[in-house]
Amino acid sequence: MSDLDDFVSAEPPWYTGQGDSGRTTFGRHGDVAKTDVRVAAYAECDEANAAVSVAMAVGGLPIGVTSTLASVQNDMFDLIADLSVPLDAPEPATARIRESHLTRLERAVDHFAQEAADLSGFVLPGGTVAAALLYHARAVVRRAERAVWAAVEAHPTAVNPLAARYLNRLSALLFVLARGANVEHGDVRWVPEASARAMAQKENGVDARAATPDVDGDG
């Protein structure tokens, strides 16, 4: 694709075969390999946004959460547009990630953290469908963050580091939203080597329930 605007306004056919050599025209970065770290960062962010959409569509989340995530999805398009245009490009980008994007996410994290369970300690991902999808989206976002940092390291004058910082804050938001989605269901806390201890106790004739992780909300 040549630019985000070109992609959005494109007319069929949706395939051209021009990328069959393993290269693509990536925004205003020009002709690059499809394995280029900038293309990889773009693709990881696209997947992260899709993961958020699945949580919104299937999770049965409260309206306050879905409206926040809808704003996040728009931000992610800002971020993708940002990645498509070098910072030092002569023409301005359609959108850039700015400090204000981070501030809004940080405020959202602080707000939803008040509705979540005790945020100390480590918990196993899962619980309700909503929580499981949000935990998964968080993992995808963390991978996208690493990909963007790799692009920043490789092209420090071209790739906006605020994009990576935004993804870092987004992963924090998805974590507190997942914890909030499990308030009634209860989180299962990580107990180091619990499975190994349970097996050892079973082999020794001890009740394995003694090694079962505690569940928040069950006392």
Automatic annotation (TrEMBL):
One of its GO terms (biological process) is cobalamin biosynthetic process. The keyword Protease does not apply. Keywords: ATP-binding, Cobalamin biosynthesis, Nucleotide-binding, Transferase. Pathway: Cofactor biosynthesis; adenosylcobalamin biosynthesis; adenosylcobalamin from cob(II)yrinate a,c-diamide: step 2/7. GO terms for molecular function: ATP binding; corrinoid adenosyltransferase activity. Residues 1-27 are annotated as: Disordered. It is an enzyme of class 2 (transferase). The keyword Transferase applies. It comes from the Bacteria. InterPro entries: CblAdoTrfase-like, CblAdoTrfase-like_sf, PduO-typ. Residues 15-179 form the Cobalamin adenosyltransferase-like domain. It catalyses: 2 cob(II)alamin + reduced [electron-transfer flavoprotein] + 2 ATP = 2 adenosylcob(III)alamin + 2 triphosphate + oxidized [electron-transfer flavoprotein] + 3 H(+); 2 cob(II)yrinate a,c diamide + reduced [electron-transfer flavoprotein] + 2 ATP = 2 adenosylcob(III)yrinate a,c-diamide + 2 triphosphate + oxidized [electron-transfer flavoprotein] + 3 H(+). Its EC number is 2.5.1.17. Belongs to the Cob(I)alamin adenosyltransferase family. This is Corrinoid adenosyltransferase.
